[in-house]
Amino acid sequence: MEQYRFTQDWFSRYAPQWQAALGELGPVHKALEVGSYEGRSSVWLIENVFRDGERGELHCIDSWEGGIEHLAGGIDMSAVERRFRRNIDLARTGREAMLSVHVHKGRSFDALVTLLAGGHRQSFDLVYVDGSHQCPDVLNDLVLCFALCRVGGLIVVDDYIWSQEKSGSEDLLNQPKLAVDAFVNCFRRKLRLHNLGIAQLYLTKTAD
Fold first, then answer.
1. Residue 124: beta bridge partners?
2. pLDDT per residue as tens digits for the range 46-78
3. What is the 3-state secondary structure of 155-196?
């Protein structure tokens, strides 16, 4: 990772859980990521999930406008996007012919609907949802990503217990949990939950 440029690492701690869940999934040829930021998870997918010598396709969705947590911190999202694109280019070095990376810059709802309209329904082996933390946005992302994931594919949901506010003063509509719970409850006959912790949820799609 030394050649890459990252200022945050919200991903590496979960690598063992990812490896466990991916071990049941089998080969990944097509993956979707909602929320890419600087590309740390994107780089990890390129280096650890897509097999050398086999064709792969990664779709990354991000507006690079920043959520409320980024805006409150005064983060330069233009610089974040530049780091993402540099990191992705480095990760693909030597693999350009076999691995295609599609960057969808914009709001996740629009990008996901466009993918569905473009014939990508039930085509992704792996979907990672780590975009907006606002409850309505999370619910939209999950429902649309479910449609894009193939039966037998894996959906990973980040920041299940994340909250912008301090403990005791949480706004339920300002965090992912309520939306994730609603999605899992409504689709419970079409999902299998892996017992790999609660900070991230790992869900296998069992039916469409």
1. 149
2. 999 998 888 999 999 999 998 776 665 679 999
3. EEECCCCCCCCCCCCCCHHHCCHHHHHHHHHHCHHHEEECCC
Provide the residue ranges of all domains of the chain, joining segments of one domain with +. 14-205
User: CB under 8 Å to 127, separation ≥6 — which residues?
Assistant: 31, 32, 33, 34, 145, 148, 149, 153, 154, 155, 156
Cα torsion at 198, 147, 87, 75 (round to 10°)?
-60
* Residue 66 CA neighbour count, 13 Å, CB half: 14
Token digits of residue 9: 């690492």
Q: What are phi and psi of 178, to 5 degrees?
A: -60, -40
Q: What angle do CA 59, 117, 124 make, to 5 degrees?
A: 40
pLDDT tens digit sequence for 99-130? 999 999 999 999 999 999 999 999 999 999 99
* Structure token pair of residue 187: 């689709």
DSSP conformational letter for 58? E
**8 A C-beta contact, residue 162 and residue 176:** yes
Query: Which fold is adopted by the domain 14-205?
Result: Rossmann fold (3.40.50)
